[in-house]
Amino acid sequence: TMTEEIENILKYLKNDSNHIIGESRGKKYVLKPSVIYYFESVDNSIFAYTKDGVYEVNSTLNDVESKFSHLGFFRCNKSFVLNINKILSLKSEIGSRINAELINGEHIIVSRRYSKSLREILREGRNDGEY
What we know:
This protein is α+β, with helices and mostly antiparallel strands. It has three helices and ten strands. The strands form two sheets. A seven-stranded antiparallel β-sheet has the order 2-1-5-4-3-7-6. Strands 8-9-10 form a three-stranded antiparallel β-sheet.
């Protein structure tokens, strides 16, 4: 049951840039950015993907990108914000795209529009995260 105390706790956590609230199966979870592989936009909803699950978040891709960019998150195409710390390998593709293989075996395509940004991030090492 949602009480005023729980609402206040959720408001506090939403303002903390080191967490994001995700919902799965009717329960709310506090997610650390370090466990999130990527965010995806599907049918006007945003989902955070982790090793153990998928969580709907009440945010936009622009918001999560700006909130977590200092931790290695970047827009890789119009529907994804990817955690650079979860990339295992990169492979150049036709049309200046990049195939990013994640540590869980998934493949995410970095579009031509965003591949230059990824190269700059890698060159400059802009990240306070793990890579």
